[in-house]
DNA sequence: ATAGGGTTAG
């Protein structure tokens, strides 16, 4: 039994003993603070060397130290290094705890190693460790993130089966997951049901729902939710404002959006550059390049430090005005500052190259992305497919389409439109049906381009046939 | 320690 140092009289042997222990504990806490700081700054090498120094001074790292390192490595998408810490813990005779496993589970999922997540969950059970509510929350979040809502729902049933009580975060994760997977109405129903059973929504819950409703264009419902947020005694925070502002820009209510920005400035919510990026992004999308440039300059003069997303916004600006030299240079500048360009950065550049007519450059950069291990390049591929079409290389675009592992509504819409422009209506018709039959939506305008095209070029019968096939496919899906 | 906002394509 440990003696509380406060209760021991000074000067005694026991006191000296517990003082040493206390100092040891304090040192370990200090070590952990250092480790956390370095991990957050993505300087894992420094975190490691601090630990080495500490051990030399006789300070022992504990389970928290290792847990922090695990989180750090997972963030750097270096799951292997994180996982190898389990072995190092064993060597240091430190037992992993639930937090260790929870961190590894979420880290594996973050790095698209879902089966590893499941294995770790299993391993945790086998080691006789009882998963806590956070293990299940994390697992559920993983499934939602990976677009597997059925399995996420199964996790919820498992929580109940294990006799654990869901916590508010459990419901927030569920509501968010449903929204992100296209089940916004179900999310709203769940929310109402929970309220009827006494669930008190947090501010975060309202933000999740407002965001979900905005994204599917249900602005009225979003506005009502915003009112409900205030009626519950919460004040909208920076996240609420950014969400609503973006929604205004999307629905082309520019003035209203800017008024929200003013209000945010007033409340001191614009310090982090999130709101600014939203505005610049909206200006670029609206073709108001000059204003976007001025705004970005102002942003820098205000001393906002670039993070990756704001660099990406700048990259987008360079590309949209055709400053591709600057864009390439920015690529280096970002990495010199210790950040790592992500799929956004590269995709923006690839699209810029396509739009500037440099298809070869775009294709080369696609290869570069592959080398970097950025494998979720669906958007980038879509840019190149569209670029190839626009450069008059439709057959090459079709070849690329055939070779793609994933295709979405953008891929099909782009190809169908461009095939129609080239008057290849029969080919377009085949693709259109392939798209709808696989349960994907396609731009209405692309659909009509095919039907009208067939009709006006003397294929009335084919046009009628296509229409009824589309209707049938859509009926089957309901 | 794990949940919510900003940046990409038709």
UniProtKB/TrEMBL annotation:
Q: Which UniProt keywords apply?
A: Repeat
Q: Where are the PPR repeats?
A: 62-96, 97-131, 132-166, 167-201, 202-236, 237-271, 307-341, 342-376, 377-411
Q: Which residues form a coiled coil?
A: none
Q: What is this protein called?
A: Pentacotripeptide-repeat region of PRORP domain-containing protein
Instruction: Give the species.
Output: Manihot esculenta
Source taxonomy lineage? Eukaryota, Viridiplantae, Streptophyta, Embryophyta, Tracheophyta
């Amino acid at each position: 039994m440990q003696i509380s140092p406060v209760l021991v009289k000074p000067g005694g042997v026991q006191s000296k003993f517990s003082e040493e222990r206390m100092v040891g504990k304090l040192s370990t806490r200090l070590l952990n603070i250092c480790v956390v700081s370095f991990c957050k700054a993505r300087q894992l090498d420094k975190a490691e060397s601090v630990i080495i120094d500490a051990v030399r001074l006789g300070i022992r790292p504990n389970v928290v130290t290792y847990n922090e390192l695990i989180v750090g490595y997972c963030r750097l998408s270096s799951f292997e290094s994180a996982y190898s810490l389990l072995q190092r813990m064993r060597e240091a005779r430190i037992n992993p705890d639930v937090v260790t496993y929870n961190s590894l589970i979420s880290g594996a999922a973050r790095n698209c190693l879902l089966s590893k997540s499941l294995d770790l969950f299993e391993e945790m059970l086998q080691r006789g460790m009882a998963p806590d509510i956070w293990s299940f929350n994390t697992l559920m979040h993983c499934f939602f993130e990976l677009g597997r809502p059925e399995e996420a729902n199964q996790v919820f049933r498992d929580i109940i089966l294990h006799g654990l009580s869901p916590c508010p975060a459990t419901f927030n994760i569920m509501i968010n997951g449903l929204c992100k997977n296209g089940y916004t109405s179900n999310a709203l129903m769940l929310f109402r049901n929970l309220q009827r059973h006494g669930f008190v929504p947090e501010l975060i819950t309202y933000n999740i729902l407002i965001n979900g409703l905005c994204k599917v264009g249900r602005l009225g419902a979003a506005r009502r939710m915003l009112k409900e947020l205030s009626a519950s005694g919460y004040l909208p925070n920076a996240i609420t404002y950014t969400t609503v502002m973006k929604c205004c820009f999307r629905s082309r209510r520019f003035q209203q959006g800017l008024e929200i920005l003013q209000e945010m400035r007033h409340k001191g919510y614009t310090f982090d550059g999130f709101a600014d990026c939203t505005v610049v992004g909206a200006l670029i999308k609206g073709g108001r390049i000059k204003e976007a440039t001025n705004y970005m300059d102002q942003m820098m003069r205000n001393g906002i430090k670039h993070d990756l997303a704001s660099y990406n916004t700048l990259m987008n600006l360079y590309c949209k005005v055709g400053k591709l030299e600057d864009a390439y240079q920015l690529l280096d500048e970002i990495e010199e500052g210790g950040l790592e360009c992500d799929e956004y950065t590269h995709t923006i550049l690839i699209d810029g190259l396509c739009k500037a007519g440099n298809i070869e450059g775009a294709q080369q950069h696609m290869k570069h992305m592959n080398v970097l291990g950025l494998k979720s390049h669906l958007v980038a591929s879509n840019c190149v497919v569209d670029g190839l079409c626009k450069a008059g290389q439709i057959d090459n675009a079709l070849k690329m389409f055939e070779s793609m592992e994933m295709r979405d509504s953008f891929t099909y819409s782009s190809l169908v439109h461009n095939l129609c422009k080239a008057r290849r209506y029969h080919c377009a018709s085949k693709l259109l049906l392939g798209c709808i039959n696989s349960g994907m939506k396609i731009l209405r305008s692309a659909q009509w381009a095919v039907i009208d095209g067939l009709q006006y070029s003397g294929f009335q019968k084919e046009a009628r046939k296509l229409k009824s096939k589309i209707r049938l496919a859509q009926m089957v899906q309901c």
